[in-house]
Amino acid sequence: MSFIKFFLNLIIFFLSLINVWKSRKLNLRKANYFIIKSNKDLIDPRSVRFINLNKKDLSKSLNFVRCVSLSLSFKSLFYLKNIVIIDSLYNFILQKNKILEKKSVNTNKEYSRIITQIIKYSKINEFKMIDDYRLMSLFLPILNKLKIFSIGYMHGRISKDLEYQKNLQLFKFDKYYVWNEYFKEKILLINKKYQKKEIFIKNPLKKYTTKNLIKTNGLCFIEEDNIKLGTYRKIISELKKQKKFKIYFKFRPNNRPNHALLGLLKKNNIQYFFKENVYKLFTQYNIKILFAFNSSLLVECSYYNVIPIMIYSNKIFLQEYIKDGIVFSYRLNNIKNIFNQQVQITKKFKTMKKSIWKYN
Predict the structure, then answer these.
(1) pLDDT at residue 32 greater than cutoff 60
(2) pTM of the model as a whole
(3) Whole-angstrom Cα distance, residue 8 to residue 71?
(4) Nearest to 271 by CA among 306, 242, 236, 300
(5) In a 10 Å sphere around its CB, with 0-12 CB exposed, 13-18 middle and 19+ buried, how is residue 181 labelled?
(6) Buried b (16+ CB within 10 A) or exposed e, 311-323
(7) Which helix (H) or strand (E) holds 52?
(8) Residues of 324-341 as b/e, b for ≥16 C-beta within 10 angstroms?
């Protein structure tokens, strides 16, 4: 099986190199990075949304992609133009070095060296990507070394409290688009390498003109990674005590449904959604309050006039957001206090929304 994967990764890498050669012959000067997803267009919706990428425009650029599935990699090579699947390159090097009994550090160095050679050969002069924290450390030093102009797009909340966002503090784009003035100030604070003139504001959120389907006010809580079923059970127990609200649940669109969680929602007659556009749901189902632990929606929902409630049991994930006053926070056992203080929260929320989205 490992030999088959080794051989398939080699084929994918070879086909990717052909795309690099074709792009050079076509004199393409721009490049993108995005993630392949198993949706209709195969392009990660975040790149579609933040960078305005679409399938048609890929013919005008060289496109570096992440794709964790071999079958999806072959499908992408067939349906998308000018793509270079970097995972297959890494896996090919990793498997080769295991056979040769080389250290993992050699794999990373070789991987970076080959990506550098590909980018140098391509003759590109501009590179766009979402601020994928995992790949910034690969691409940005290479682009800086080769003097290629890099453009980054914020794709999720920014916080010094999130350990996996360390690369936002260590590396910089030549031009960086963030959602609003709050995050412009935040990135300037956590990464001293940036100058104000290098940070631009671009709000990716859209206003949707959708019909209100429900008159009753709604509460929504969402699926998040590493949240136990028992925690969801406690949330449901607390929310069901509020008879004036209808309760909704939104699954992560790209996750496989958790059958135990699905059963819990059905048992409690909670309406749930999978692939639906969550921003449209806010209006359609008259959602007034969003409950989450550590989601970008806690920042985004206020744009749609939805009150963000960060709930926690022991650890608070985004302490600085509470300090900065862009979310409300309540311990899991004290959710009932939200409804006792609803008038005060609503008044504070109006000021909060203006401070976050004042230029949008």
Answers:
(1) yes
(2) 0.88
(3) 10
(4) 236
(5) middle
(6) bbeeebbbebbee
(7) none
(8) bebbbbbeeeebeebbee
Cα gap 153→150, rounded to integer Å: 10
Per-residue pLDDT of 318-340, as tens digits, reads 788 888 889 999 998 889 889 88
The amino acid at residue 17 is: L
pLDDT higher than 90, residue 266: yes
Cα gap 251→224, rounded to integer Å: 8
Residue written as token pair 């006039």 = 305
Tokens encoding 272: 């749930």
203 residue type, one letter: N
Q: What's the CA angle centered on 174, arms 168 and 179, to 5 degrees?
A: 60
Which H or E run includes 114?
Answer: helix 104-122
Q: What angle do CA 224, 226, 171 make, to 5 degrees?
A: 80
Angle between helix 2-25 and 70-79 (nearest 10):
20
Give me the amino acid identity at 309: I
SS3 of 138-166: the string is HHHHHHHHCCCEEEEECCCCCCCCCHHHH
DSSP state of 59: G
pLDDT digits (tens, 9 = 90+) for 103-129: 666 788 999 999 999 999 999 999 999
Question: Would you call 293 helix, strand, or coil by DSSP?
Answer: coil
- CA separation (Å) from 32 to 60, 285, 341? 10, 36, 47
